[in-house]
Structure formats: structure tokens, C-alpha cells
Amino acid sequence: MRIRAQAAGDKVTVRVLMAHEMESGQRKDAAGKTVPAWHISDVTASHNGKLVLTAEWGGGVAKNPFLQFVVKGGKAGDKISVTWKDNKGESRTDEATVS
């Protein structure tokens, strides 16, 4: 994941680019067989360890999804952590420092 977090006043704008194939389960391969669903199902974000965002996604989200949100009460030096889990049980967590 690429996470960018920028402070402006007391608000932090967080931009996250997640690398994931995001298969819907409806596409067919060259042989005509259905490609199994494989997508991010849960996303959470925390600011200095406090949960600030939860999301439930499905197969309709595009490949390599982009997420942007704003956190109030942030400042430079704070930590933003983002975690995703997919429908196959894989997960990833990354952290960024607010600039």
C-alpha cells in the first residue's frame, strides 16, 4: 500500500493506494472458466491507535483501489495505520507518518 497523510490545520487528508487484483467472480478466463472471486472485504484505519474508519467492500470495487478520507484532530508526526483483509483470508497493514 502507498499511504500519504498530509495535515492542514487540525485535519489530516489520508490517501491510500492498495495493490490488489480485486476479481469479482463474474469474469471468465481465456478457456471460458469463471475466475474465482478474490477481493478486499474489510478495510480499517486508525489514527494514533484509535479506530477512525471501517469499510466493507465487495467484488464491485476496481482493481488497485484508491481510498481517501479526512481525520479531524490530527497534526504532523501522528501515525496513520491502514489494514485490509480479503475474502481468501489474506491481510496487509501499513503505516504512515503525517507530514
What's this entry about, in short?
This protein is an all-beta fold and 99 residues long. It is built from no helices and seven strands.
CATH class, please? Mainly Beta
Determine the CATH topology: Immunoglobulin-like
Count of β-strands = 7
Strand count, sense and barrel status of the largest sheet are: 4 strands, antiparallel
| Number of domains as seen in the coordinates | 1
Q: Quickly give the structural class.
A: mainly beta
Second-tier CATH architecture: Sandwich
Cα shape: elongated
C-alpha Rg, in Å? 16 Å
Show unreliable segments: none
Strand proportion, as a percent range, falls in over 45%
CATH superfamily: Immunoglobulins
Trace the largest sheet across and list its strands: 4-3-6-7
Provide the residue-averaged pLDDT: 95
Give the helix level as a range of percent.
under 10%
**Count of discrete alpha- or pi-helical segments spanning 4 or more residues:** 0
The helix/strand series, from N terminus to C terminus, equals EEEEEEE
| Spatial gap, N to C terminus | 17 Å
